[in-house]
Structure formats: C-alpha cells, structure tokens
C-alpha cells in the first residue's frame, strides 16, 4: 500500500475525531498550566485541515493548502506550528503515490520546517516532546523499507512515550514557562494531542491496509 491523498483524507478524519473525543480532557490539561483552550484550538486546526484536504489539487498542493488554511483559519502558536509542518511536508513531494521511504522523508521535511519556527526540543514540555520522537521512530525504520502500518505504529508509540514524559518536565515555553518548577506534575496538552493524532494516523493506516488486503485477496 502506498501513501496517497485518499489515505491522507482518512488519516485526517481519524485525527479530527480523536481530538474531538478528547476535547474536554485537552482543555482541562491546558487549563492547569496554560490558557485552557488547547483542545479547542486543535479541533479548529484539524477541522481546517479536513476541509482543505477535500479541495482539488495534487498531493503536494493539498499539503501546502492544508498548512496555509490551518494558519489562516485558526490562531495560536500550536496552529502556526501545525501549519508549518504540513507546508514542510509538501516540500519533498513530487508524486501522487509515495512508498514508505518517500513517506518518511515527507514527515522528516515537516519536522525540519517546524524547527525553523521554534527552538523547542525534547525536554521542553511542548508538543515537540511527542513530535520529535515520532519522526525519529519513522527515520529509524527508513533503511528497512517498512510497510506504512509499521511506520505509523512506531511513530504513535514513540509519540505516546514522549507525551507521557512531559509529566515530570518543567515548561520552558509559552505561558506555562512562567510557572517554572510548578509546571512539573502535569502532562503537556500539546504533546498529548500530538500523541492522539499519531495514534489516529496509525489506526487509519491499519484500517486502510486491512481493506487493501481484503480487496486483493
């Protein structure tokens, strides 16, 4: 199975549902050390992404449109970073069907672009604590030419582990930074939402893989 615009549509639909289902939890987490609106912001961003992915255009154009639409239709630092990620993804795409190596390269490019917009890294109690390990897990599989299901399963597991680690971290960015050591003991909402999204991606890819196998058996 290859990565296509149709698969991307399924992934984003699953991600929106995952965020929507955990909206209250994400806002509650954010309220502890932030503005209390992270879940709402993420749902708006994923909503914009789901509208954009349905528009006409190539995979490359669609990824770029998703990025700009997220930034145009939603506000906040998280939305800006998400938009930057999708725009970065578009920069290495030239085909309508991507194999596993091309897919990993696409996600690596997304991370590279987001890093031009933030200095946050692993250990800073931000979404990067989940995102960086997720992409690193993909990269670790690159030479094996793995199935898409393996790529996204590994990314989801790494993202969750990274998100869980934020409980013991002190925030170094955003409003939570002002709390210093008092920000320890609470999970970072951005990292948790990122883990939710990658888990949804993995489940959507697995479902499509199962459908593909059934239709070709």
Give an account of the 3D structure:
The chain has a single domain, classed as DhaL domain (Serine Threonine Protein Phosphatase 5, Tetratricopeptide repeat, Alpha Horseshoe). By secondary structure, it is an all-alpha fold. The longest helix has 27 residues, at 189-215. Helix 1 (5-21) runs antiparallel to helix 3 (38-52) and helix 7 packs antiparallel against helix 8. It has nine helices and no strands.
Itemize the secondary structure elements and their pairings.
Layout: H1 5-21, H2 23-33, H3 38-52, H4 59-73, H5 77-90, H6 100-114, H7 128-140, H8 148-165, H9 189-215
Q: What descriptors fit this protein?
A:
single chain, 9 helices, Serine Threonine Protein Phosphatase 5, Tetratricopeptide repeat, 217 residues, mainly alpha, globular
């Amino acid at each position: 199975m290859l990565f296509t615009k149709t698969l991307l549509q399924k992934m984003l639909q699953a991600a929106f549902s995952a965020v929507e289902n955990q909206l209250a939890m994400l806002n509650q987490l954010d309220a502890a050390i932030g503005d209390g609106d992270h879940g709402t912001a993420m749902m708006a961003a994923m909503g914009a992404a789901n509208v954009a992915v349905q528009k006409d255009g190539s995979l490359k154009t669609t990824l770029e449109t998703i990025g700009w639409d997220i930034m145009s239709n939603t506000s906040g630092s998280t939305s800006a970073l998400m938009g930057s990620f999708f725009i970065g993804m578009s920069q290495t795409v030239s085909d309508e069907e991507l194999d596993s190596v091309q897919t990993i390269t696409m996600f690596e490019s997304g991370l590279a672009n987001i890093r031009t917009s933030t200095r946050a890294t692993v250990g800073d109690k931000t979404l990067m604590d989940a995102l960086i390990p997720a992409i690193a897990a993909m990269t670790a599989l690159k030479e094996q030419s793995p199935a898409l299901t393996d790529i996204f399963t590994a990314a989801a597991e790494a993202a969750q582990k990274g998100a869980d680690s934020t409980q013991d971290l002190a925030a170094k960015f955003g409003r939570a930074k002002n709390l210093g050591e008092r920000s320890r003991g609470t999970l970072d909402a951005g990292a948790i939402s990122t883990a939710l999204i990658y888990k949804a991606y993995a489940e959507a890819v697995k479902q499509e893989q199962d459908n593909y196998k059934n239709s070709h058996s």
